[in-house]
Amino acid sequence: MVRHGVAPRTHGGREAAMGRRTEPLLSAHLADVTGEVQTCVTWLLSPVQARGLDDDQRREARSGWVDAVTAEWGPCGRVLRDTDGTLIGHVLYAPPSYLPGLASLPTAPASQDAVVMVELSTVAGQPRPALARHLVQSMAKDLVTREISAVEAFGQPIRTGDCGCLLSPGLLGALGFAVHRPHPLHPRFRMDLRRSVTWKDEVELAIERVLGAVRPAPSTKKATRPIRSARVASDDS
């Protein structure tokens, strides 16, 4: 989820990622996250557990979770900073065992060889393609170096009134994820990271399809490997 030295592409109003940087997400970064996602605990707690929590308790639960997962498994997200250092987006992910709240979704459980991407957002609201692509690339780089073979994510159509932090199926498809288990409300998506096509080509091809510049996609796959439980440090992208 890396080959360096490839210039980011631009198209119309889509902003280039040039000059922006990512770094491992820490619990302190959560204070700069905006929108509904800042209090989302869908992936962390069951609906019954979450029902009685106020916003401050939800933020505290999220912060404690990031600290615990980082200590046990390693970095569980990336933040994206603009050229002036302002935090403009984040992505959050972890193995299924750290995400008990997802058990209530109809397409759960996630595959045991995959890490689950539970949040992907920018300060502007719904992630714009260039920013989302930058975050997914950074996540992918981190996971590939940790010998993780796939990323999965649970989708939800926009404005269903169900959860503010699950991702729209259209966005996931544009970023190179494919439907792994269909469902009308909560399909589960998957991106294999060890295909003969590199993860970077996978994402770039998906973005090109959205922009109308389609080219053939190789389909050869390599075998997947189970997730390693050892904590591994993550470098900046």
Keywords:
237 residues, alpha+beta, Aminopeptidase, seven-stranded mixed beta sheet, 5 helices, 17% strand, disordered N terminus
Reconstruct the topology from this structure:
Elements: E1 21-24, H1 47-51, H2 55-72, E2 77-81, E3 87-94, E4 114-122, H3 129-145, E5 150-154, H4 169-174, E6 178-181, E7 188-192, H5 199-211
Parallel strand pairs: 4-5
Antiparallel strand pairs: 1-2, 2-3, 3-4, 5-7, 6-7
Characterization of this structure:
Helix 3 links the parallel strand 4 (114-122) and strand 5 (150-154). The N and C termini lie close together (11 Å). The chain has a seven-stranded mixed β-sheet with strand order 1-2-3-4-5-7-6. The chain is of the alpha+beta class and 237 residues long. It has helices at 47-51, 55-72, 129-145, 169-174, 199-211, and strands at 21-24, 77-81, 87-94, 114-122, 150-154, 178-181, 188-192. It has five helices and seven strands, in the order E-H-H-E-E-E-H-E-H-E-E-H. Helix 3 (129-145) packs antiparallel against helix 5 (199-211). It has one domain: Aminopeptidase (3-Layer(aba) Sandwich), CATH 3.40.630.30.
